[in-house]
Design a protein that fits this description.
By secondary structure, this protein is an alpha+beta fold. Helices cover about 30% and strands about 35% of the residues. It has 4 helices and 12 strands, in the order αβββββββαββααβββ. The strands form 3 sheets. A 5-stranded antiparallel β-sheet has the order 6-5-4-1-7. The chain has a 5-stranded mixed β-sheet with strand order 8-9-10-11-12.
């Protein structure tokens, strides 16, 4: 019996080590990326079919993962992910259309702010994939008093178009991330970047 436990323990350790840093793909049409390994935990954002994640560890039917697109760590259900990318994942382009509309609206918003106060705000947008996007803004905008409120307004436009929890990274012209806004349990969260 003691021998069985030693073999089981060694297998468990080796299994954990070989799974670390392995890439897995979402197998569901819309997957969920949670803050904690439980279904009633707040969702960080949904994941499109075929979304790639990097395994940190496997624990009780949940993968602790890193989304390399956004740099966020969270949890996904083991049963929803696999090691092969689904063949029909490329056809899932609902978020591309949302992003096009978002970019147009943000450009209009930026022009209105510039006309009103003479300050250049949003320079460009980039779609990272799914419900994740980047907003590149001017340094003057980051220094302004109203940038936080405007960031929440921008987030609400993006989330409204996606009709689901979403993620926005706000960066300067050099590509340095200043902060992120993502869905929270009650309202969007503003998180400063390190």
């Amino acid at each position: 019996m003691k021998f069985f436990f030693i073999v089981f323990f060694k297998f468990f350790i080796l299994y954990s080590i070989t799974n670390a840093n392995e890439m897995i793909f979402n197998q569901k049409k819309i997957g969920q990326f949670f803050m904690n390994p439980e279904t009633n935990s707040p969702m960080i954002y949904p994941l499109e079919l075929g979304h790639k994640m990097k395994i940190i560890e496997l624990k009780n039917g949940w993968y602790n993962v890193t989304d390399e697109k956004t740099g966020l760590n969270g949890w996904v259900k083991e049963e929803d992910f696999g090691v092969t990318k689904p063949l029909d994942s490329a056809a899932n382009s609902d978020y591309e259309k949302s992003f096009e509309i978002f970019s147009e609206r943000l450009e209009e918003m930026s022009k209105s702010i510039e006309d009103a106060i003479g300050l250049k705000t949003f320079i460009e947008t980039q779609h990272i994939g799914g419900v994740a996007a980047v907003v590149v803004a001017s340094e003057d905008w980051f220094l302004g008093r109203r940038h936080k409120n405007q960031a929440f307004q921008v987030y609400e436009i993006w989330r409204g178009l996606n009709q689901t929890p979403s993620f926005l990274s706000f960066r300067d012209k050099s590509g340095n991330e200043k902060f992120i806004v993502l869905s929270g349990p009650h309202r969007p969260r503003y998180l400063k970047s390190n």
